[in-house]
Amino acid sequence: MAVPARKTSKQKKRSRRGHIKLATPAMHYDATTGEFRLSHRVSPKGFYKGRQVANEKQQNND
């Protein structure tokens, strides 16, 4: 069985695991509805870029 010649340092180990993390969603404040929403998504009230693009009734039925 293969055995490493040297102990792996903390720095080497941590740099290898640097990409293993949770990503935070990109949220911002929507002044039209007064709520926070995900970027590039329609708000729960049906607004996008300050304009109404969908009705709440349509979203609830789908």
Give a description of the structure.
- With 62 residues, the protein is α+β, with helices and mostly antiparallel strands.
- The protein has two helices and four strands.
- The chain has helices spanning 10-16, 56-61, and strands spanning 27-30, 35-38, 47-48, 51-52.
- The strands form two sheets. The protein has a two-stranded antiparallel sheet with strand order 1-2. A two-stranded antiparallel sheet has the order 3-4.
- The longest helix has 7 residues, at 10-16.
- It starts with 9 loop residues before the first helix and ends with a helix.
| pLDDT averaged residue by residue | 85
Q: In what order do the strands lie side by side in the largest sheet?
A: 1-2
Low-confidence stretches: none
The secondary-structure class comes to: alpha+beta
Count of individual beta strands: 4
Largest sheet: 2 strands, antiparallel
Rg, alpha carbons: 23 Å
Strand content: 15-25%
Distance between the amino and carboxyl termini: 58 Å
SSE order: HEEEEH
Helix content: 10-25%
Rough outline: rod-shaped
Number of helices: 2
